[in-house]
Amino acid sequence: MTAEVGILNKQGVVIAADSAVTIGGQRVYNTSNKVFILGKSHSVGLMTFGNAEFMNVPWQIIFKRFNNNIKAVPLKKLEDYAEKLIDFVRNDTELHDKASMINYVESFTYRICEMLQNDINSQTNPSMGEDKFKEITKNIILTAVEKMQKLSSLLLDMNI
Fold this sequence. Notes:
The protein has about 160 residues and is of the alpha+beta class. It has four helices and eight strands; from the N terminus they run E-E-E-E-E-E-E-E-H-H-H-H. The chain has helices at about 60-70, 80-90, 100-125, 130-155; strands at about 5-10, 10-15, 20-25, 25-30, 35, 45, 55, 55-60. A two-stranded antiparallel sheet has the order 1-2. A two-stranded antiparallel sheet has the order 3-4. Strand 1 (about 5-10) and strand 2 form a beta hairpin.
């Protein structure tokens, strides 16, 4: 769990975060930087939380490449930075080649199957009736399908 703080006053903004990070969905390190700046020309800070990677690429690398991509020309609004970052992540083929994306989807699917198995095991028991077991299992699977549809939608938006 990440702790992030932002303080705003008339003179500026301060942002801070803890240093714990999860790599690959499992390993936790307590030496990570979760606060980034885009560079001297951009008065923009970025903070990460949750997984330290997007599709197996560390956020730090994504932010560095994004900074190089937008050059030294400041954008007019903060929203412009968000839009540009989303477009950059969608379109930078060096960040996510097709093989990496397929690997990510396979890994994600495996994690969904593990989640299904764990959820079914934790919410059912041998003494419950077959109808109750089927109802619980169906609801768990439908929830997982919704998550997969969201991922599929994202990949389609990225023209994959």
